[in-house]
Amino acid sequence: MDIQLQQVSYAYSKGTPFEKYALHDVNLSIKSGTYQAIIGHTGSGKSTILQHFNGLLKPSEGTVRIGDRIIEAEKKAKDLKSIRQKVGIVFQFPEHQLFEETVLKDIMFGPMNFGVSQQEAEKRARSLITLVGLPESILEKSPFDLSGGQMRRVAIAGVLAMEPEVIVLDEPTAGLDPRGQKEIMGLFYELHQKKSLTTILVTHSMEDAARYADQVAIMHEGSCVLIGEPRDIFGDEQLLAKYHLEPPRVVKFQRQVEKMIGKQLVKTCLTEEE
Ligand code: ADP
């Protein structure tokens, strides 16, 4: 499903003395089946933009197209239901949203709420629990008896149980140890590849954006100031510094080696390796 933001502006508390524009004229096209990263300093508008991908927020001006659906200021709630089915959001610390007595019930909750039969919802839960790397026996446990990492996987299974075509990830590795971070990012990349899931990653991690994304967008003070391939975005340190962003560790490492052995030699080594 293609996604397109056209001249999207968003104001919190619009029309009140507290009105605050958090997005200004944002244009962004995300092709179906691609992996998009959105990066930017704190307060640049990433969370605000993220909530536009499934109509949690509606643009004050401009339009958001999700496939053939359009979200704009006057859109009614009923039109948003089908969009919410297609676009799954994994919020930061999604495990905080677990609430059912058992893991099975928690994963089944979303689809059953959208009219999927109990039998089908259970089938999805059983296949997803393995996909997210947990044993089937965990389905009968209380989500609150699990470890933090396991809870996160259950919450992710709950989002996937809706069978979304687009998945939006809001700092999905926050609070995990380095191994857990790698595993979760690997899981999403596998899903993206196997199911051609359009993936939108909002992240502070330049490494993850550089490693996984086909396209990277930089947000700065509510504007989408740059869109490009990771190699163009992350190869230009001056540009990153302008938006208060650090280059990924691998780029920093390359620069250190360049200082030690000379730029040309590093370039030659990299070319030969390719
Ligand atoms: P990021 O996710 O990049 O940190 P946000 O989208 O959270 O950025 O915030 C963008 C701007 O909108 C910031 O200036 C922030 O203070 C403001 N903002 C965020 N949420 C609200 C809100 N509920 N009410 C008013 N202003 C908000």
TrEMBL record:
Which organism does this record belong to?
Answer: Solibacillus palustris
Q: What is its EC number?
A: 7.-.-.-
Family affiliation: Belongs to the ABC transporter superfamily. Energy-coupling factor EcfA family.
- UniProt keywords, alphabetically: ATP-binding, Cell membrane, Membrane, Nucleotide-binding, Translocase, Transport
Give the protein's recorded name: Energy-coupling factor transporter ATP-binding protein EcfA2
Subunit info here reads: Forms a stable energy-coupling factor (ECF) transporter complex composed of 2 membrane-embedded substrate-binding proteins (S component), 2 ATP-binding proteins (A component) and 2 transmembrane proteins (T component).
Q: How does it sit in the membrane?
A: Peripheral membrane protein
Q: Which residues form the ABC transporter domain?
A: 3-246
